[in-house]
Amino acid sequence: MEDKIFLKVLQGEVLPKPPIWLMRQAGRYLDEYRMVRDQAGSFLNLCYAPKMAAEVTLQPIRRFGFDASILFADILVVPDALGQEVRFETGEGPRLNPIETAEALAKLSASKVDEKFDSVAETVSLIRDGLPSETTLIGFCGAPWTVATYMVAGQGTVNQQPARELAYKDPELFQEMIDLLVEVSVDYLSRQVKAGAEVLQIFDSWAGSLPEAEFERWVIKPTQKMVSQLRALFPHVPVIGFPRGAGPLYERYVSEIDIQGVSVDETMPLEWVKMHLQSKVTVQGNVDAFALVAGGAALDEAVDRVINCWSDGPFVFNLGHGINQFTPVAHVEQMIARVRG
User: For 271-309, b where at least 16 C-beta lie within 10 A, e where not — what string?
Assistant: First the structure.
C-alpha cells in the first residue's frame, strides 16, 4: 500500500502528482499487442488464453510504467460464459445471437460459467505475478445494462434501441436478464479479486442513452446491488463506476452507489465535476481520446486543464474513454511526461 499511489488516491488522499493509467491501454496502438493478437488467431481466443492475455496486459506497464494495470478481457465474456454465442467479426465488432424472448433467455445458465471465468482468473493471477510492486491491478466487468444492450440487439447499436424497447414492452423479462447479469457479474468480479485484483471497475458504456427513470431502474439499482454484494465480500477493495454519458445523472449515480471512484467521460465540464462529484469520491478522467491522437499543443492544453482544475482533490488521470487504436505511441509518452512533470 505504501508504494501504490493509485490505492492511496482511491482512499481519498490528495497527492502532488496524480496516478495515471489509460482505459484500453493494452491494445492495437501497440505493435507488440498486434503481434500477440495475430498469434492468438481471434480476439476471444486471446481473452481466454491466460499467458497471452497476461502478456498484453503487462506490455503497456513495461513500456510506459503506468500506475495501474487493467486486466485484458472484454465485457462480453459474461454472456459468452453464460452460453450465448459471441463472435467478433473483423471490422464489424461483436456479433451475438439476439435474446428477445423468455425461451431464448432460459437457455442461458450461471452453471456454465466456470471454465471461462476460471480462465480469466488465471490471467489475473499471472498478471499479479508479473507486475511491479508499486503497480495496482484492476479487474473489471461490464455493467448489467450495457451488457444487456448487446445481448438483446446481437451487436452494438447507435442508440441501444432494441434493449430500450424490450425494457418498455416486457419489463419483467428484461428484469430477469438484468438480475442474471448482476448474479454472474458479482461471481466474475469475485473470482478476479481472489486471483489478485486490487480494484474493480464497472463499465456502463451506454448508461447515457437512458431517461432518468430508466437510468434509475437499469443503471443505478443493478449497480447498487452489485456493489453492495462486493462490499460485503471484499470491504477493502475499492470500486470505480463508469456511467459513460450520464451527464448530470452522474451525481445521482455517485450519491446512491457505494463507490470509491467515478470515471468521467470527456463531455463533462471540469468545474461541474469538481463541485458535484469530487467532494464525494475520487474522480478519474477525462481527457478526450482524440486530443491524445492529435498530440502537440492541443494535448498539452487538455492535460493542463484537467490537472489545474482537479489537483486540489483526489483524482486519477485518465482519458474520458478508451484509447484510440490510431494513437501514436509518442503522444502517450508526451502525455505521461506532462502529467508527471
Answer: eebbebbbeebbbbbbbbbbbbbebeeebeebbeebbeb
Phi, psi of 255 (to 5 degrees): -75, -30
pLDDT at 109: 96
Other C-beta atoms lying within 10 Å of the C-beta of residue 228? 13
pLDDT tens for 139-162 read 999 999 999 999 999 999 989 999
Max CA pair span of the chain = 57
Q: Name the H helices within 65-143.
A: 77-82, 102-106, 114-130
Query: What is the DSSP code (8-state) at residue 72?
Result: -
Backbone angles phi, psi at 45, to 5 degrees: -55, -40
Over residues 197-213, the mean pLDDT reads: 98
CA dihedral 28, 33, 35, 40 (to 10 degrees): -100
Instruction: Identify the burial level of 317 via C-beta atoms within 10 angstroms of its C-beta, where 0-12 means exposed, 13-18 middle and 19 or more buried.
Output: buried
- Torsion, Cα 221 231 245 147, to 10 degrees, reads -70
Q: Can you list the alpha helix ranges (DSSP code H) found in the chain?
A: 5-10, 31-40, 43-47, 50-64, 77-82, 102-106, 114-130, 144-153, 161-169, 171-195, 212-215, 221-233, 249-256, 270-276, 289-294, 296-310, 329-340
Res. 1: pLDDT tops 80: no
Residue-number span of the structural domain to which 146 is assigned:
5-340
Q: Please list the residues that pair with 216 across neighbouring strands.
A: none
- Residue 90 pLDDT grade (very low, low, confident, very high; cuts 50, 70, 90): confident
Domains: count for the chain: 1
Give 230: exposed, middle or buried? Use CB within 10 Å, 0-12, 13-18, 19+: buried
User: What is the pLDDT at residue 92?
Assistant: 78
How many angstroms from the chain centroid is the CA of residue 336? 21
Q: All 3 cell numbers of residue 314?
A: 483526489
Cell numbers standing for residue 37: 493478437
pTM: 0.97
For residue 10, give the CATH number of its domain.
3.20.20.210
Q: How far apart are the first and last CA of the chain?
A: 23
Q: How many CB atoms are located within 10 Å of the residue 338 CB?
A: 17
